[in-house]
Amino acid sequence: MKPLLALILAGLWVSPSYAALNNLTPEKLALAQQIVTLDNSKKMLQATIQSVIQQTRSSFPPDTPESFFTNLEQNIDQEKMLSDLIQAYGSIYSEQDMKALIGFYQSPGGQQVAAKYPAVAVKLADLSSDSLHEAIHKTLQQLQSSPAP
């Protein structure tokens, strides 16, 4: 795993356009990788994907083949999403900020927060979906009640 991570980080570092745009150094990417490991991002991502797939399933016709949802889950590139998250941390936070986050996630309180992140992600996905469905319903009602131009 570590050689693969080193290869990925090296590839990102030598990419001129990426490095120039985001000022990412191998050190920042290594810190970001450490945060993503400590903060339970992989489990949070998996929980979010499962929640979104369940919500998607409920919005599709009942006769939608199960293979569609199986293929959907397989087509979601979780490793790319995690890589994108690492890059986001590296481009948003300073090294000092990331070191502080690492210190937090290594503390007992930080470990408790990280352990609960997957449940928070599922709850947020559910709440977001409910809010989105309400907004869509309201928007459709507004569209139907407004006179045509």
TrEMBL record:
Keywords: Signal. It comes from the Bacteria. Residues 1-19 form the signal peptide. The keyword Signal applies. The keyword Signal applies. Residues 79-127 form the DUF2059 domain. This is DUF2059 domain-containing protein. The lineage of its organism: Bacteria, Pseudomonadati, Pseudomonadota, Gammaproteobacteria, Moraxellales.
